[in-house]
Amino acid sequence: MRAAGAKRGYSLDSISRQVDRKDFEDFDHIVAMDMENLDGLRSIRGGTDGKAQVSMMCEYARHHDDKEVPDPYYGGERGFEHVMDLLEDACEGLLNELTKD
Predict the structure, then answer these.
(1) Which residues contact 49 (CB under 8 A, 6 or more apart)?
(2) What's the CA gap between 76 and 65, in Å, rounded?
(3) Nearest to 59 by CA among 90, 97, 14, 100
(4) How far apart are CA 68 and CA 82, in angstroms?
(5) Rounded distance, CA 91 to CA 39, Å?
(6) Comparing C-alpha atoms, which of 63, 84, 62, 90 is closest to residue 72?
(7) Inter-residue contact 58 to 34 (CB < 8 Å)
(8) What is the mean predicted confidence (pLDDT) over 41-53?
(9) Is it the case that residue 101 has pLDDT exceeding 80?
(10) Whole-number pLDDT of residue 46
(11) Domains of the chain, with CATH numbers?
(12) For position 58, what pLDDT does the model report?
């Protein structure tokens, strides 16, 4: 993924962390990449209301019909390119959603 991102000018060198229950209070939006992530987020959230809206990344894609962000490893180099295309599309849609009045 780092190589696919670098080709597009992205530096993908951050480190992820586990979502915790407090995140649902601290953040406005939490975005899942696939149904397994979404189920995990719902489990972590439990009965906590919190303000965070939980959604799927692909909900924001405007030029792709994918319902989930696929695991790129199964598609070889093209799989990584597809995921990058999908995420660029969805991130643009998410940004538009967050900045509209």
Answers:
(1) 24
(2) 20
(3) 90
(4) 12
(5) 21
(6) 84
(7) no
(8) 89
(9) no
(10) 86
(11) 14-99 (3.40.50.2300)
(12) 98
pTM of the model: 0.88
* C-alpha dihedral (78, 97, 99, 84), degrees to nearest 10: -10
Tokens of 96: 């538009």
**DSSP string covering 41-84:** HHHHHTT---SPEEEEGGGG-SS---SS---GGGGHHHHHHHHH
Do 25 and 51 touch, CB atoms closer than 8 A? Answer: yes
Reading the block at residue 51, the tokens are: 């303000």
Distance CA 101, CA 92 (A): 16
Query: What residue has token string 């909900």?
Result: 59
Q: How many residues make up the chain in this entry? A: 101
Structure tokens at 100: 């509209």
